[in-house]
Amino acid sequence: MTDPNAATAGETVQAVTREGRPRGLFADAWYELRRRPMFWLSATLILLVLLMAAFPQLFTSVDPNYADLSRSRQPPSGEAWFGYDNQGGDVYARTIHGARASLLVGLLATAATVLLGATLGVLAGYHGGWLDTVLSRISDIFVGLPFVLGAIVILYTFNTPGSTPSGVRVMTQVVLSIAVLAWPVAMRIMRSATITAKQQDYVKAARALGAGPGRVIVRHMLPNTVAPVLVYATIALGAFIGVEATLSFLGVGLRPPVVSWGVMISAAKDYIRVAPHMLLFPAGFLTLTVLAFVTLGDAVREALDPKLR
């Protein structure tokens, strides 16, 4: 009698080895991702946002900083699909152009967080001992800090009331504030992965052959420990875009003349009843973008972890 599970197992083995050799971790993950509709949906939304940020002129030719007070708070129409804001600016044009600043803050904050956290995590996990103890206790201190409150304190410290810092300076401060408060998560993820990888035979063999710590970490451990950090980075990118909007809404993040979704939401908060379109469209784009990154991160996590398939 034929076992129905045997055919399924045979198909799996054939899929894995049909190119003549077993697929690697990332090749196998890509094979799994291609079969997930949510991956394609989230990837399409993210690609659209990236195009908006890189080439806003493909979507609108209207200057996002142009304002006509005679059109103040006019509702959506054929002339302005998303209506006009309180100053008479085109909400559609500002939403399209606002993707750049919001996405840039998220990307830079994610890069800084992962770079700092992963570096410290590798050092702590590989060397252990007093270095691991010191870095772990420092990360515990930062984990105990309320995230948004900590960012508000940092930004208020660098910007005295009444000051008008440049947009680049404020963006840099927001990125550094997020990185300073968020690095312990990346550090703990990389530390755990490094401790696991350090016990593997290929690392022990590299040490026995005389490879130094730098070579062991870069050539042998990083390729096998970077996967969980990439998953975290994908999810964190969406979260950091939301953090930028939160800080801008509270008045300590980006501010005019910078155009971002957070700045638009902050400007619309006093006109929700009389002009809800000023809030709904940038908030909608923000929500969809954050959701797309979180969904993509979940799909990547499931594809990289065979236990979750």
Automatic annotation (TrEMBL):
SUPFAM superfamilies: MetI-like. Keywords: Cell membrane, Membrane, Transmembrane, Transmembrane helix, Transport. The chain crosses the membrane at residues 39-59, 103-126, 138-158, 170-190, 229-254, 274-300. One of its GO terms (biological process) is transmembrane transport. Residues 99-297 form the ABC transmembrane type-1 domain. It is found in: Cell membrane. It is a multi-pass membrane protein. Belongs to the binding-protein-dependent transport system permease family. This is ABC transporter permease. It comes from Amycolatopsis suaedae. The lineage of its organism: Bacteria, Bacillati, Actinomycetota, Actinomycetes, Pseudonocardiales.
